[in-house]
User: Which sequence fits this backbone?
């Protein structure tokens, strides 16, 4: 039993890196007993709250870079390496890539990864938010189908 309601627990799980919507929906439906549309809504809301942090990534990286030389070197290395290795492909498939990073329910993909990618590649927040949300909706529907099918097979 949790100290929070099933809805709030699902929302909070949706915010956790590596768990996100992909883990929050199955947990909400199977362990907490939420109906699919309720688990979807709260997991989606939690994951979208993560995306709202994109505008603050620039301020945080700037602050850390100015305060500590090691952070400055790390950020410079990450930016340079990422842009050098992936810039051309990302520019070609920019919007689709951002949606797919989120939509495909695999480890290390999701709203956190897409938020960082949109920041690294300079995609404006107003463009990234709807694309990431679209990917989250797709991933959420996939998870509901997987959990619903699993529940029918197992007789849960």
Assistant:
């Amino acid at each position: 039993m949790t100290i929070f309601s099933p809805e709030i627990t699902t929302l909070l799980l949706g915010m956790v890196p590596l768990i996100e919507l992909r883990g929050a929906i199955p947990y909400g439906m199977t362990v907490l007993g939420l109906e699919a549309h309720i688990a979807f809504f709260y997991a989606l809301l939690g994951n979208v709250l993560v995306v709202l942090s994109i505008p603050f990534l620039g301020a945080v990286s700037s602050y850390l870079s100015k305060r500590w030389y090691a952070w400055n070197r790390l950020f410079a290395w990450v930016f340079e390496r990422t842009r050098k290795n992936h810039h051309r492909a990302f520019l070609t498939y920019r919007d689709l890539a951002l949606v797919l990073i989120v939509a495909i329910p695999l480890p290390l993909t999701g709203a956190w990864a897409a938020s960082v990618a949109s920041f690294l590649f300079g995609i404006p927040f107003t463009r990234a938010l709807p694309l990431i949300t679209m990917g989250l909706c797709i991933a959420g529907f996939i998870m509901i189908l997987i959990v619903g099918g699993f529940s029918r097979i197992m007789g849960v």
